Amino acid sequence: MILSNRNKYSYSHQLCLMVSLYFTNMNNINGTNSKLVSSVFILREKKSMDWSTCDLTKDDLEVLLCQQLESDMKLVTYKVQDLTQPGDNYSSTMLSVDITLQRYSEAPHSLSLVAKIFPPTKFLCEVINIDVTFRKEVNAYTLVFPEFYHLQTEKEIPENEILDVSPKLYGARINRQGDRNEKADGSAVLLLENLKIYGYGIGDRRNGLNLKHMELGVSKLARFHALSVALKILKPNVFKETILSACETYQIASQTDETGLPTWVGTTMRFVKAIPECEPYLQKIENALVQFVSSTIPPKEPFAAFIHNDLWTNNILFQYEKEATDIPTGIKFVDFQLTQFSSPAKDLIFFIYSSAKLDVIDNNYDDLVQLYHFEFTNCLKRLECNTDPFTLEKLQEEISVFGSSEFAHLLHMYKFICADQKHLPELSNDRLEELLDINTGGDIYRDKVIHLVEDFLHKGWL
Questions:
Q1: I need a surface site. Which of 18, 149, 221, 279 has the fewest CB within 10 A?
Q2: Residues 6 or more apart from 86 whose CB is under 8 A from it?
Q3: How many CB atoms lie within 10 A of CB 391?
Q4: Digit-coded pLDDT (tens) for 347-377
Q5: Cα separation of 54 and 424, whole Å?
Q6: Is 317 within a domain?
Q7: Contact between residue 385 and residue 234 where contact means Cβ atoms under 8 Å apart
């Protein structure tokens, strides 16, 4: 099978998501985000360096942190250790970085950080097109999020009401040349605040999130999208230089196109065929899979926005007060490697159907959509944008066109969302089929697939 560039992009997206079950590295990142700072970062290469192997020295940290530290603040001690264990399969390698700072004779104080670098093998780097997707994430932190912050402060949004859904960035580097126009290489790094010390953690991906979690997620997602729309309206040149720079397309290595795509469709259908309740709809399901990988709907105004494009439980961190884990008080989004300029309805529908408990979807879907619309338009109003084009009816139309296209995305991802981590095989260096050909979700997978098919049929989306 020969794929066009557009089809390669769709398939690349699936492969990036396909290994995202293993992307739980970001669960170790937990923090806040105020003003974002970018600085030069230097990595010492080992003699036998693969794509991600590097040493992190005191000199490197001092260079990286120079814009964060006052002139009389010194780095006294530092400790770097692995957060991902040997043999773990992640979209990146995660390092914990604990440092001690001191000003003259004052008592020292500590800072807990996380360094995100390339995955441990060339195979994983190619699967997720890391030289492009890592640059996309750096651009999200260094170009997009600062503009979100600046726009809100310019419109005099109170500091305690500013949207803050990403970890604080302490430094970033894309490549050895320090050139954001070139692809990322083995020296690429993101240095982020460790959110874990603030009590953040992920939800239950297999069983889903309760209503309180979903309401918080939907309300923050709506504002996240609205900020980019406001930037598009109020500062079109800035929007082009920042948002669109972080939304470049990415492709999987060409050698997997002819074999990987039909394998993905075939294995997904094989698992669906094993569910008797889906038998009457098999042709519609297969048509939806083929259409998803063979065509892409272009962005549509006025809703087109900067979207996360991979917003499910493992890429969302919740903060709680003490031991009360039923009601979250804070939220962060992580892993901005797959961002797009597209319809926010894709994020909304994917988040709801990938992450909510099934009874929450059944009983609260309409309320969640209305909550999203309220928060979206309210954010635009506070930023002094005209909200007349953004009616609830127009949002419903947007969801019908773009949200319904998430069916194949969701169906494929359910294998990994529902998977029992204990029974997942490790990825080898060249056996992508091993991951495509597994399904350890059991009854949880079966129930989610039946629910998805029946609900999309009922809504006229399938």
A1: 279
A2: none
A3: 12
A4: 999 999 999 999 999 999 999 999 999 999 9
A5: 28
A6: yes
A7: yes
The DSSP element (H or E) to which 410 belongs, if any, is: helix 406-417
Domain with 310, as residue range(s), is: 5-24+129-165+200-458
Q: Is residue 100 part of a domain?
A: no
Tens digit of pLDDT for each residue in 207-257? 999 999 999 999 999 999 999 999 999 999 999 999 998 999 887 543 345
Is residue 106 situated within a structural domain?
Answer: no
Within-domain flag for 336: yes
Render 205-266 in DSSP notation, one character per residue. TTT-B-HHHHHHHHHHHHHHHHHHHHHHHH-HHHHHHHTGGGG------GGGHHHHHHHHHH
Sign of CA dihedral 273, 278, 279, 282: negative
Domain holding 300: CATH number?
Answer: 3.90.1200
As given in the structure block, the two tokens for residue 16 are: 């990036």
As a whole number of angstroms, the distance between CA 276 and CA 283 comes to 14
Q: What is the value of pTM for the model shown?
A: 0.86
- Total number of domains in the chain: 1
- Whether 162 contacts 276, CB under 8 Å: no
